[in-house]
Amino acid sequence: MSRRPLTRDEARAIFATTDTSLLEVIDNLLTKGVVLSGDVVLGIAGVDLVYARLSVLLCAVDKLLEAQSETGERP
To answer: Is 0.70 topped by the overall pTM?
Structure first.
Protein backbone atom coordinates (compact mmCIF):
# COMPACT_ATOMS: atom_id res chain seq x y z
CA MET A 1 0.00 0.00 0.00
CA SER A 2 1.70 3.17 -1.23
CA ARG A 3 0.80 6.59 0.10
CA ARG A 4 1.33 9.71 -1.94
CA PRO A 5 2.67 12.84 -0.28
CA LEU A 6 0.29 15.69 0.42
CA THR A 7 0.18 18.47 -2.10
CA ARG A 8 0.84 21.99 -0.95
CA ASP A 9 -2.85 22.86 -1.23
CA GLU A 10 -3.88 19.82 0.85
CA ALA A 11 -1.37 20.74 3.56
CA ARG A 12 -2.60 24.32 3.64
CA ALA A 13 -6.19 23.08 3.90
CA ILE A 14 -5.26 21.09 7.01
CA PHE A 15 -3.75 24.12 8.72
CA ALA A 16 -6.36 26.58 7.44
CA THR A 17 -9.32 24.99 9.21
CA THR A 18 -10.11 26.69 12.48
CA ASP A 19 -11.25 23.39 14.00
CA THR A 20 -7.77 21.86 13.77
CA SER A 21 -6.01 21.72 17.12
CA LEU A 22 -2.33 21.15 17.76
CA LEU A 23 -3.13 17.64 18.94
CA GLU A 24 -4.83 16.84 15.63
CA VAL A 25 -1.86 18.18 13.67
CA ILE A 26 0.59 16.08 15.70
CA ASP A 27 -1.65 13.03 15.32
CA ASN A 28 -1.77 13.55 11.56
CA LEU A 29 2.02 13.91 11.39
CA LEU A 30 2.58 10.73 13.40
CA THR A 31 0.02 8.81 11.37
CA LYS A 32 1.56 9.86 8.04
CA GLY A 33 5.15 10.09 9.24
CA VAL A 34 7.60 12.92 8.75
CA VAL A 35 11.37 13.09 8.20
CA LEU A 36 13.41 15.98 9.55
CA SER A 37 16.89 16.52 8.12
CA GLY A 38 19.58 18.99 8.99
CA ASP A 39 23.28 19.73 8.90
CA VAL A 40 25.44 20.89 11.79
CA VAL A 41 28.87 22.44 11.25
CA LEU A 42 31.09 23.37 14.19
CA GLY A 43 34.03 25.59 13.47
CA ILE A 44 36.38 28.16 14.90
CA ALA A 45 37.56 31.30 13.10
CA GLY A 46 36.01 30.23 9.80
CA VAL A 47 37.60 26.75 9.86
CA ASP A 48 35.11 23.88 9.83
CA LEU A 49 36.10 21.28 12.41
CA VAL A 50 33.07 19.00 12.72
CA TYR A 51 30.33 18.28 10.19
CA ALA A 52 27.30 16.16 11.06
CA ARG A 53 24.25 15.32 8.94
CA LEU A 54 21.20 14.54 11.06
CA SER A 55 18.00 12.78 10.00
CA VAL A 56 15.08 11.97 12.27
CA LEU A 57 12.05 9.88 11.40
CA LEU A 58 8.92 10.70 13.41
CA CYS A 59 6.23 8.10 12.99
CA ALA A 60 3.90 5.96 15.05
CA VAL A 61 5.42 2.56 15.86
CA ASP A 62 2.47 0.63 14.44
CA LYS A 63 3.03 2.33 11.05
CA LEU A 64 6.69 1.28 11.07
CA LEU A 65 5.79 -2.31 11.89
CA GLU A 66 3.13 -2.28 9.17
CA ALA A 67 5.59 -1.00 6.56
CA GLN A 68 8.18 -3.50 7.72
CA SER A 69 5.79 -6.42 7.31
CA GLU A 70 4.82 -5.21 3.80
CA THR A 71 8.45 -5.21 2.65
CA GLY A 72 9.26 -8.50 4.39
CA GLU A 73 12.12 -7.07 6.44
CA ARG A 74 13.04 -8.55 9.78
CA PRO A 75 13.05 -6.37 12.92
So the answer is: no
Q: How many helices (H) and strands (E) does the chain have?
A: 3, 2
Instruction: Extract the residue ranges of the chain whose pLDDT is less than 50.
Output: 1
Contact 41, 50 (CB under 8 A): yes
Instruction: For residue 19, give the 3-state DSSP assignment.
Output: coil
Cα-Cα-Cα-Cα dihedral sign, residues 39, 41, 46, 49: negative
Sign (positive/negative) of CA torsion 59, 2, 8, 19? Answer: negative
Report yes or no: 34 and 11 within 8 Å, Cβ to Cβ. no
Q: How far apart are CA 74 and CA 44, in angstroms?
A: 44
